[in-house]
User: Fold these one by one.
Assistant:
Number 1:
Amino acid sequence: MTPSLIWPRSALALLFSSINRARRASLTAEPYLRRYLIAFVIGAIAVCGAVFFVELHKPWMFYWMYAGTVMRLVLCAEPVAHTRPVLQWRRPRVASNPRDVYGWNGRRSA
């Protein structure tokens, strides 16, 4: 990869990853946060189209401030993992069919 293509590819990766992350978070977010995430996705796609077709060069400072705020909303919208594991009862294994760690049967077939 040539050095002249590193910056545009990384900028596009940041741009589209923020859109994709907000879109995925809108599927599990609370209804009061979902509308902001959907609005960000639609607005970011509109800004991408405007930059490509109209040659806008000045909106990036405002876009990244808004993207940072929405990424914080994404973190708030993600479900929180439980800190304590839930213990489940398991039946003890019967040792009549010995298997190794890979699941292979210990007996040879004739």
Number 2:
Amino acid sequence: MLTDIIPATQRAKVYIVFAVIAAGFGTVQVVYLTTSTPQPMWLTVALALIAYVGTSMGALAKANVPMQDPQAAPVSPSTTVQGGVTTFDPGDGSPTTTTLS
């Protein structure tokens, strides 16, 4: 993993700074587009660099995401009856259903 390149606390700060800078350049581009003013070359270059650097940052972030345990126990369905209302939870993340008993 790439965890030794940048410690987690510093990575979080880098991601925040990058997001603020990207949002700033995006806002400037929106201003140029909505005012029908020609976009300057420096903004075009800056947006291209943001996209290029963002790919590297995304790869670093992905490399530092903990792997999920593939052997996680499945959740079984459950039915609850309370006060004349029956609630069924399929246990697979889909919505529960509620009926009157």
Number 3:
Amino acid sequence: MNNFTMVASASTHQLYDALLGLAGRRGRADEIAERDRGAVSLEQVLWFAAAGVAVAVIAGILFNRITNEAGTVPINTTPTPVAP
């Protein structure tokens, strides 16, 4: 991360925090601590794993269909004439 990116990111966070304060939506530190549910829940982990498995299965099916189709299509090996 270069200096410009770091300064832009820090400025964005400070501006967002200031706007939350002006709008009255920032909340007190103890309220934020009560809302914080901590680490990732087991349900989130299971959904993430299920999505990963689904993507892997679909990718495997598509890969097999593509390789099977590629094996049945003849390749044209006749050279094409070159324009003068």
Number 4:
Amino acid sequence: MREPLITWIYFSFKKYIKQGSWKLHRVGNILTHYIMAWDSKYVNFGVLKIEGNKVYVYYDRQNYVTIYVQNEVRSANWAGGDVNVTLTDGKIRKYRDLQNYISI
């Protein structure tokens, strides 16, 4: 009984999520999602600017997106296709995209 429900969810959401930053992935009977990395325009331009608890990620001279962090940011730099943000309390966050990070 689970297989048809999972299949329905997979194919129903796949058409809506396909063009966004989320991707849906099916492994057997388990339905999961994973997050795509930063768009190449951000990585190729490579400019980060820090102001207090915000990190601005530029993709050209005037346009950027903002990473909001709860604590004040000490430094931020690119590590391959990820943004590593070091906080003043010593914690390091690795951002795979604008909102999702892991602590390293």
